[in-house]
Automatic annotation (TrEMBL):
Residues 26-49 are annotated as: Disordered. Pfam families: T2SSE. Residues 32-47 have a biased composition (Basic and acidic residues). It comes from the Archaea. Signal peptide: none annotated. One of its GO terms (molecular function) is ATP hydrolysis activity. It comes from Methanococcus vannielii (strain ATCC 35089 / DSM 1224 / JCM 13029 / OCM 148 / SB). InterPro entries: P-loop_NTPase (IPR027417), T2SS/T4SS_dom (IPR001482), T4SS_GSP_E_ATPase (IPR050921). Belongs to the GSP E family. This is Type II secretion system protein E. Residues 209-450 form the Bacterial type II secretion system protein E domain.
Amino acid sequence: MGLFDRIQKSDKPAIAKKDLAESNINTPNIYENKENSLEDTKQEPPKKVGFSISRDIKKQEIENFTSDSRSTILDKYFVRVDEIDFDIIIEKEEGVTKYKIPEITLMNTALSKFSELDIKTIKAELSESSLQKLGQIQGYLKSFSEKNNLHLRDIEILHLSHYFYLIIGKLGLLEIPLNDDSLEELMVNGIDSPAYVFHRKYQMCETNIRSDRHEATRVVESIAYLAGRTIDSRTPLLDAFLPDGSRVNATMQDVTLRGSTITIRKFSADPLTIVDLIRYGTFDLELASFLWQAVEGYFGSKPANTLIVGGTGSGKTTTLNVVSMFSMYNDRIITVEDTPELQVPLNHVIKMITRPGRPGIQGYEITMDDLIKNSLRMRPDRIFVGEVRGSEAHSLLVAMNTGHDGCSGTLHANSADEAIIRLINHPMSVPKVMLSSVDFIINQQRIKRNKKTIRRILGVVEIGGSGENITKTELFKYDGVSDSVVKTGICMWEEEVCAIAGITRDELMDDRINRKKVLKYMVNNNINGIKKVGDVIKQYQENPENVLKHILE
């Protein structure tokens, strides 16, 4: 199903139909035309609906659009929206990485055979009818073509049906990148400007999707409806999340001069794991095994309280989600967020989200601080806070100071020192005496290497001391020459957990080596996915000897 279908409530009308008849009818001019050739895909083609047009015929049509001699093809695959496959080409052209959807060109070619009045009529009639299925739209277009002597080929009707299928009751051509699991983020910068996507592998890419003023406004209003919010000239800013968990920010042309904008951070049904971050180089095995042991607290003896700091887009929430998987499998965990991004693969988890205020309704707003204070009455073992920005920082550290070990949160800061300054000053206003309840500050940032943006842990700092005398010890530090994290300090938490667990330091280090073996085994044997990785972690917590025996066989 398309994104709109997956998240729209069944008892609400398809708001995306709104204003279709009023949309800019000069449709053939609102998309870029240059595309590339495609190679065969290995996945089975979708079930044929309406016309019996093979993928080979469609592929041959697309291959007529050869690559520019200045471009280099990096990747080819396809994205499925319901029963439709859309081919994707990733290419490099004059230093710019482009995410191209060849069928957009074919849609435009077919649309050019319609008059403006034809397009307006089709939009109006389809939006007012019950013809929503692909086969029904194809039948309607064939009948319309014959009635008006347009002499459209079946392949042209196929491309046209795909176009109208996406804009009738859906989010238009944006449905294609929104259904691409390889993408993290989608950005529409205004009218007659290419949309951009952030690809997990190829990073920022320019697309060949362009929206006119009416279509962009229609999509923004549809998204606002799905989010249960309002966006108009009186309230031209929208910051919300969709029912599927995707985070959305949108603006109207009242405040963005080039027209409505959309930024969607996609919710991942299968989020990244520690295996992914090791492969990407964000963590190495040494740091990963240390954090596994620390967050877990050596089988729950002394879980560490952590803050993950970094800039925008540095991957803080991803890392928080990854390390949350190290929690003891029977812990009662409460997550507190503005948008539901954390996915802890354990059974005893309660997810709490804030509620924005509404004009004229006093007390309707529920803040992060409200939720953290309430969570303390719910007998949690751990509290994870998606993003600490204000007074909730004080409540989180109160939780850490009252015996709730293993708590964690993210914070916007460029270093551990900057994080501490932010914590003790307004609006967080955390008393300095409470800072020692934080065991570790993990600094993660986006950096540039070889013209590529990468995410790396730049350091791990241990917080110690008592009263207002705070000490900081750098335990791990990023080395740019080797592109790795090196151990630089002695960890006091290790002595504390040894005393509580009744083990020697050598036993603790042996356990860390064993965890490193388990992590290496998962990486080498492609054991990945939130469920599989979570199962291995749980098995190690229950019986480490059995896990080690299995991986050494």
